[in-house]
Amino acid sequence: MPCDIVVCMKQVPHPDYLGKISLDPTRGTINREGMPAVINPGDRNALEEALRIRERFSGRVIVLTMGPPQARKALEEALARDADTAIHLCDQAFAGADTLATAQALACGIGKLEHFDLVLCGDATIDSGTGQVAVQLAEFLDLPCITGAEELTFENERSLLVKRIWERGYIKVRIKLPAVIAVTDKINQPRLPTVLGIMAATQKEIRSWNAADISADVSRVGLSGSPTRVSQMSEFHAKRQGEILQGSPEKVVTLAIDRLGKLEML
Amino acid sequence: MDFSLTREQEILRDTVREFAQRELAPNALALDEKGEFIRDIVKKTAELGLVGIITSKEYGGSGMGHLARMIAIEEFSRVYASLGFFFQTGQIGMYILENFGTEEMKKKYLPPLCQADLIIATALTESGGGSDPSTMTTTAELAGDEYVINGRKVMISLTPVCDLAVVVAKTGDRFSAFLVERGTPGLDTPNRENYPGLRGEPVGDLVLTNCRVPKSNLIGQEGRGLAVAISGIGAMGRTGVAGVGLGIAEGCYEVAVKYAKERELYGKPIAELQAIQYMLVDSNLEIEAARWLCYYAAWLLDQGKSPRDAGDEIARCKLYACNIASQVALRAIQIMGGYGTIPEYEIVRRLNDSIELFTAAGTQEIMKNTIGRSIVS
Fold first, then answer.
1. For chain B, which terminal residue's Cβ has fewer other Cβ atoms within 10 angstroms, N or C?
2. Which residues contact A167 (CB under 8 A, 6 or more apart)?
3. What is the mean pLDDT of residues B368-374?
4. B313 touches B258 (CB < 8 A)
C-alpha cells in the first residue's frame, strides 16, 4: 500500500555561520539576515527517511515549510533530493510565530491535504532548538507522536516499531499510522542530490499557500497566535580558564578535590 | 548583465561542496600520500551524475553544461585537486567522442563512461613535445580495413588506469584521431610517472606497437585529428585545468584566513596585522578575478560558442587561474610561517598540485601565444 509522507522542514542559517548570529534584544529575536541558509539538518534526515519509506512502499513525499519567500529555497533543495512535491506556507500573517503558532499553521496546511499516512520532522532545529513543534503539531492533528526516533521499522504497512533515545539508553515504541515522528540525526545519512535530480527539481511543483488558503484563524498563527514572549535576551560568553596543579600525585588530587569543591562541582 | 548562478547551479555547488567535505576532506592527506587513482571516489561522483555532466542525456549524461562542470571542478579542487583534475582529463575523451565520434561509438562508450565504469585517456603529447605537433612521430597506416598504429605517447594522464584512449597519430602528412581499447594487441601502458603533485591522478606512457584498430575507430575525418584533439583540449582540458587552479587557490586561501584569525602574535590575531591583511587581500582579489574569468569562459561554451571561438577567453582563464594557484599557495605559506609547510595544513600538497597545472592542457606560454595572436591580428 502506498505511504504518503509529509516532511516538515525549516530553513535555518548554515551551521558554519551559527557563530555569526546576533541578537536583537529590542525585538526579542535572533538576526539571521544575510546568512547563507540551509535545510535544518534534522529535517534532511526526516526527508531521507521518507524517501527510504517511499522506496519500499511507494507513495508520495510532500515537503512542507512555513516561512518567508526565501524559504522556498529549502523546498527547491528538497525537491532536488527527490521529494515529489512541495508546499510553501507563506503569508505575512505567519510572521513572528513561536513554536505553537508554527505548529498551528503546519497543522492547517497538512489538514488541507487529501491524504497522508505519516508526518516526519527533525527532532529540533539548530537555530532555536526547542524541539516542540513536532509534539504540538501532533496535538493539533490529534495524532500520536514519537520524538527522538533513531530507527523506524515497519511491522506492517500501518504499524511501526520506533527505536527512540531515552536518557542513557533507548526504548522501542509501537505506533500506528497516521502519526507524527521526529527523528534524530542518528537515523540515517541523507543522500546527496543527483545532477538529474537537481535538474528535474525545477520542473516540480511548489504550491504557495497563504493563511486563507489553509483556512487558518489568523489570531492563532504568526505573532498574534504566539503566547511566547521573550522578556530578555543576552549573549552567552563561554570563558575557559586553565590552571595547572603541580606537585606529587597525592597532592595534586587533594588540590583538585579542593578546587572542585569550592566551585560546587562535587 | 546577470552574474547570479541559476538555482540549479547553486544546488549543484552546495551538493559538490558537501560531497567534498564528506568524501575528500577527511582523507585528502592520506589519499595524496598513498598516491593511487581514486577510482571508488570517482565512481561515487558518477553515481551522482557528475562525470556525465557535459554529456547529453541521450548518451547517459545530464547535459547540465560547462558552467556547472566548472563549479564542480572548483569545489572538488578546493579540497582535493586530483579529483578535479580527473574531470579535466577524463572528460576530454568523452567530449571528443560525443562531438566527433560515430553514433555507434557514442552509444557504446558514453553511457559506461558517464558511470565511470570505463575511463578514457587522450593521448597527444610525445617526447618531442606536446605544443608542437610537427614533432609527432606516432603514425597510423591504413592496411585493408585496419589502421596500424606505431609510436609512444608520454606524460598522458590516466593511461595507467584507462580502458580507452583517444590517440592522435600522423596519417601521411596530416593527423588523425583514433579510439583504441585496452586489450588491443600492441597497446601497452608500461609505467607510471612519480610526480609530486596531483598524485591521485596517474600519468604514464602509452606505447603502440603495430597496434591494429578497425577503420571504424577513426574519430572524425581522416586528416582532421588535430582539430578534434584541440577542440577537446580547449573545451574540457584548458577550462578544467583552470577550474582546478581556482579551487586550489580557494583551498589555500581558506586555510590561511582561518590560521590568521586563530594565530596570535603581539597579543592579537595576526589577521589584525596589516601586513597579513594585505596578503589576504591580494589572494582574495586574485581568486575573485580568476573565478569570473573561469565562469565566463564556461558560460560562453554554454551559449554555444565553439572552443575555437572562445579560445581567447579559455586561454585567459587557464593562464590566470593556474598562475594564481601557486601564488596563493606560496602566500599562504608566508602567512603561516613554519606551519605553512607542515603536511597536515595541506598547503604544500596544494602547491605541488598547482605546479602540475602550468604544463597541463597547454603551457602558460601557449596560452599567451593564443591571446597574443588575437591582440595583434
1. N
2. none
3. 94
4. no
